[in-house]
């Protein structure tokens, strides 16, 4: 049986081409992945808000696969309406799927808290409006955002085409002297190949949206993720 240690449901924007491959490449043995999709093309506040109307539908579909937990894999899609919206999304998905749920924005907060982070530098592909919303979200969660830079990309498929090498370069260009960690934001941003290299070169923990979500989902499943190769977050 696939998923003999746990079946993980994943809800992603329809135009996300990164989350599923990154999860599948780093799932522990015995954990299976089962995805449902919400329609999204442009990554802006209105589109993300409308996309969330499909969360319950996706959760109910995943319930038919008898999943043990569900991850809502979208960063700004789970914070677009401000503080508390991430937990609201988790509650809505959990009720529809009849299983515990995590949402990326909430998972990022839990991951940074787990690492003891107070000050964070952020790089993201988002447009300015979403960059501002994310900064406010992180500050409301208790973090000092010492730097945050966005690329201004609106088409989600264009975000998915960004290579990990460019993620590395942009993270290295952040001013990190006052940071306790770097956060690379967006579940469609290809990051897993460079997380550990960035940590070695920066001398700091580096957390991506997908790494934080997978870490939180595995904790929810009760599965040890220390061998998945995604940096310091998974070593604790």
Number of helical segments with 4 or more residues? 10
Overall pLDDT: 95
Indicate the percent of residues in helices: 40-55%
Give a count of the beta strands, DSSP E runs of length 2 or more: 8
What does the largest sheet look like?
4 strands, parallel
Class inferred from helices and paired strands: alpha/beta
Q: What is the CA-atom radius of gyration, in angstroms?
A: 16 Å
According to CATH, what is the class of the largest domain?
A: Alpha Beta
Our count of domains comes out at 2
Numbering strands along the chain, what is their spatial order in the largest sheet? 2-1-3-4
Reported CATH architecture of the largest domain: 3-Layer(aba) Sandwich
Span between N and C termini?
A: 30 Å
Low-confidence stretches: none
Query: What pattern of helices and strands is seen along the backbone?
Result: EHEHHEHEHEHEHHEHEH
**In what range is the share of β-strand residues?**
15-25%
CATH topology label of the largest domain: Rossmann fold
Shape assignment? globular
Organism: Halobium salinum
InterPro entries: Iso_Racemase_Enz_sf, MaiA/AMDase
Pfam family, one: Amdase
Protein name: Aspartate/glutamate racemase family protein
């Amino acid at each position: 049986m696939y998923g003999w240690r746990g079946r993980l449901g994943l809800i992603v924007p329809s135009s996300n081409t990164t989350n599923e491959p990154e999860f599948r490449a780093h799932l522990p043995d015995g954990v299976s992945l089962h995805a449902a999709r919400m329609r999204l093309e442009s990554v802006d506040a209105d589109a993300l808000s409308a996309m969330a109307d499909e969360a319950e539908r996706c959760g109910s579909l995943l319930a038919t696969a008898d999943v043990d937990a569900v991850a809502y894999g979208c960063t700004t899609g789970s914070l677009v309406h401000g503080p508390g919206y991430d937990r609201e999304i988790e509650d809505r998905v959990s009720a529809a799927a009849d299983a515990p749920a995590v949402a990326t924005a909430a998972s990022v907060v839990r991951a940074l808290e787990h690492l003891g982070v107070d000050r964070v530098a952020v790089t993201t592909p988002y447009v300015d409006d979403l960059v501002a919303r994310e900064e406010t979200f992180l500050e409301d969660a208790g973090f000092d955002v010492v730097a945050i830079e966005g690329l201004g990309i609106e088409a989600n498929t264009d975000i998915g085409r960004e290579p990990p090498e460019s993620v590395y370069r942009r993270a290295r260009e952040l001013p990190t002297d006052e940071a306790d960690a770097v956060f690379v934001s967006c579940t469609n941003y290809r990051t897993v190949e460079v997380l550990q290299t960035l940590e070695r070169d920066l001398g700091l923990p580096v957390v991506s949206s997908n790494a934080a979500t997978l870490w939180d989902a595995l904790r929810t499943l009760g599965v040890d993720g220390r061998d998945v190769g995604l940096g310091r977050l998974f070593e604790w």
